[in-house]
């Protein structure tokens, strides 16, 4: 028998940040390492990633990192893990190539890390268990369910899957292998909940294809398709329809170009070279107004909307939108992009472009709906159901589906991040432990963890701007050398507020004399008091609270030009 424990550091109650851990006889298997994109109120935060302090404390027990597919929610935090502990990464070849490409974005050399390509036919064996990949259907090629075979039965991890068969061979589910897993017994199914609120079966093909075809048919001038760069199946669909209408393609967006290039090089996406157009920069002789070209405007999160805004305002170097253009909007707003999406559509309306918004339901069918989840239960026949990958309401939705299917409540385990469940001889133990968990806010790179104070200051900056007060003093002689220079950004117009500037000068003078009257200058107290007094005055006067940044320069001989 095996001692088995399972817990999540992200992905339970989250849309993203997927990171699950299976422990077998004290050895740790990491399943995915994803990030979560921030909401609009987290100013300057680039990503949210799981706190991996617990894993760092047990890095010697980790046998590897197993990746299901190449989406940010599943591989986005990989650089953080590999910076913390160099462990082998196991994935299918396309996922590995995308993971290596991700490392390059963070100036990490992929050659310094161990990547092991998983073949669907060849499981990898460890001392007390073996791991096998099973092909599943998702919006990127070679997506996989990950099966961990133990002495007490298999644990099946399946995130982001459907059973849609309107796809090519690199996206199709291996039904035979899924059914065979059940032969030796399935202890637990860790199944995605992202589509659990949707009824029926998920299918990406029919309605979406008809919408694309209808739009292409009625377009009078250029067709601009905006979409997310990670949805390769949808990109392929647009490509196929464009070719049928004898149109060429121009792919705009750095990441999409890389994704398509990698996918095409590996044979997982097909775009004939003769169908691709290299656009030239717009000038007096070239406007790129080609009626026979479909422009794919792609990117991540806000990028498709931002690029459309640049085109609408004639800032872009390749496309300037005009009234006769047709915009096929295939990038539904996600968390944190609602405002920029609404603004983009307003701008497009002002130009008068024909905007066709694709129904969100047609674009969100890459996750298992209720009947897909039941079909997976039927194939695997698991003893325990553990809903993963979704908001809490989604986890509960899958729990309801499991009850409807016939599972007893004690065999359905809805967990929180950090909550540990243990299996003893194939049965769940009643006592649940907790491991350290949380969220790390990333700004620019994986070496920066933002705190609430920084976010509060950024919120104030975005609303009320900032004020820099710079002055020169001679600390040795205890004299002020000049009046302070006040610089405002995003707060007030200097020429129209001379009285406010004068009052700030008075506050500075009074506080400086107060500090100079002491035997020893307390520079921290000096700056803190300046900041406090100026902030209080401005709040009373203008009802606004900008960030105040005092800069005191000591020019005495002992310090020369010491900035305090």
Can you tell me the overall shape?
globular
Briefly note the structural class of the backbone: alpha/beta
Q: Portion of residues in helices?
A: 25-40%
CATH fold-level assignment of the largest domain = Metallo-beta-lactamase, Chain A
Describe this structure in words.
- The protein has 564 residues and is α/β, with parallel strands linked by helices.
- The chain has 3 domains: 3-200 and 365-449, Ribonuclease Z/Hydroxyacylglutathione hydrolase-like (Metallo-beta-lactamase, Chain A), CATH 3.60.15; 206-357, Metallo-hydrolase/oxidoreductase (Rossmann fold, 3-Layer(aba) Sandwich), CATH 3.40.50; 452-563, Ubiquitin-like (UB roll).
- 32% of the residues lie in helices and 25% in strands.
- Strands 1, 2, 3, 5, 6, 7, 19, 20 and 21 form a 9-stranded mixed beta sheet that branches.
- A hairpin with a 7-residue loop joins strand 27 (547-554) and strand 28.
- Helix 6 (206-218) packs across helix 7, helix 12 (370-380) packs across helix 13 (392-405) and helix 15 (498-516) runs antiparallel to helix 16 (523-542).
- The longest helix is centred in the last third of the chain and has 20 residues, at 523-542.
- The protein is globular, with a radius of gyration of 29 Å.
- 41% of the residues are buried.
- The model is unreliable at 452-462 (pLDDT under 50).
Strand and helix map with partners:
Layout: E1 3-10, E2 19-24, E3 27-31, E4 47-50, H1 53-57, E5 62-66, H2 72-75, H3 78-84, E6 89-91, H4 93-105, E7 115-117, E8 124-125, E9 130-136, E10 143-150, E11 153-158, H5 175-181, E12 186-192, H6 206-218, E13 223-228, H7 232-244, E14 248-252, H8 254-265, E15 293-299, H9 303-312, E16 326-329, H10 338-351, E17 354-357, H11 360-363, H12 370-380, E18 382-388, H13 392-405, E19 419-424, E20 427-428, E21 433-434, E22 439-443, E23 445-449, H14 452-464, E24 466-474, E25 479-480, E26 485-489, H15 498-516, H16 523-542, E27 547-554, E28 562-563
């Amino acid at each position: 028998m095996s001692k088995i424990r399972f817990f999540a550091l992200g992905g339970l109650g989250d849309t993203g940040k997927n990171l699950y851990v299976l422990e077998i006889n004290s050895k740790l298997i990491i399943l995915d390492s994803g990030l979560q994109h921030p909401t609009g109120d987290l100013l300057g935060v680039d990503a949210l990633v799981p706190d991996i302090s617990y894993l760092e404390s047990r890095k010697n027990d980790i046998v590897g990192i197993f990746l299901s597919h190449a989406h940010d929610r599943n591989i986005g935090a990989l650089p953080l893990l590999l910076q913390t502990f160099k462990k082998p990464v196991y994935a299918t070849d396309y996922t590995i190539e995308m993971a290596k490409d991700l490392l390059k974005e963070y100036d990490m050399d992929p050659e310094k890390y161990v990547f092991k390509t998983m073949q669907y036919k060849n499981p990898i064996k460890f001392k007390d268990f073996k791991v096998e990949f099973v092909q599943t259907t998702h919006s990127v090629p070679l997506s996989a369910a990950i099966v961990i075979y133990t002495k007490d039965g298999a644990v099946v991890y399946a995130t982001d899957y459907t059973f849609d068969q309107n796809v090519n061979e690199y996206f199709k589910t291996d039904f035979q292998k899924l059914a065979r897993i059940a032969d030796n017994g399935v202890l637990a199914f860790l199944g995605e909940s992202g589509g659990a609120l949707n009824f029926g079966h998920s299918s990406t093909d029919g309605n979406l294809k008809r919408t694309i075809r209808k739009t292409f048919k009625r377009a009078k001038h250029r067709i601009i398709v905006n979409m997310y760069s990670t949805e390769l199946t949808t990109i392929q669909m647009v490509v196929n329809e464009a070719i049928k209408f004898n149109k060429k393609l121009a792919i705009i967006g750095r990441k999409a170009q890389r994704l398509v290039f990698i996918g095409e090089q590996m044979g997982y996406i097909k775009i004939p070279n003769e169908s691709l157009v290299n656009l030239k920069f717009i000038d007096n002789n070239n406007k790129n107004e080609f009626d026979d070209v479909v422009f794919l405007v792609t990117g991540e999160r806000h990028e498709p909307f931002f690029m459309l805004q640049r085109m609408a305002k004639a800032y872009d170097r390749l496309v300037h939108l005009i009234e006769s253009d047709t915009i096929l909007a295939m990038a539904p707003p996600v968390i944190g992009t609602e405002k920029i999406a609404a603004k983009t559509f307003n701008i497009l309306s002002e130009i008068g472009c024909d905007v066709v918004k694709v129904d969100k339901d047609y674009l969100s069918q890459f996750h298992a709906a209720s009947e897909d989840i039941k079909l997976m239960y039927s194939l695997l026949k698991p003893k325990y159901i553990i809903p993963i990958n979704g908001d809490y309401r989604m986890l509960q939705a899958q729990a309801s589906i499991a009850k409807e299917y016939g599972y007893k409540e004690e065999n359905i385990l809805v967990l929180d991040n950090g909550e540990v469940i243990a299996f003893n001889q194939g049965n769940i133990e009643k006592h649940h432990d907790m491991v350290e968990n949380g969220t790390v806010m990333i700004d620019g790179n994986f070496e920066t963890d933002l705190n609430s104070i920084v976010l509060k200051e950024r919120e104030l900056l975005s609303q009320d701007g900032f004020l820099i007060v710079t002055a020169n003093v001679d600390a040795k002689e205890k004299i002020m050398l000049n009046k302070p220079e006040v610089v405002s950004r995003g707060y007030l117009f200097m020429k129209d507020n001379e009285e406010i500037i004068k009052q700030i000068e008075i506050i500075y003078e009074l506080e400086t004399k107060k500090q100079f009257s002491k035997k020893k200058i307390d520079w921290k107290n000096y700056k803190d008091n300046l900041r406090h007094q100026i902030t209080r005055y401005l709040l009373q006067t203008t009802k606004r609270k900008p960030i105040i940044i005092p800069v005191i320069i000591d020019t005495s001989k002992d310090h020369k030009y010491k900035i305090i």
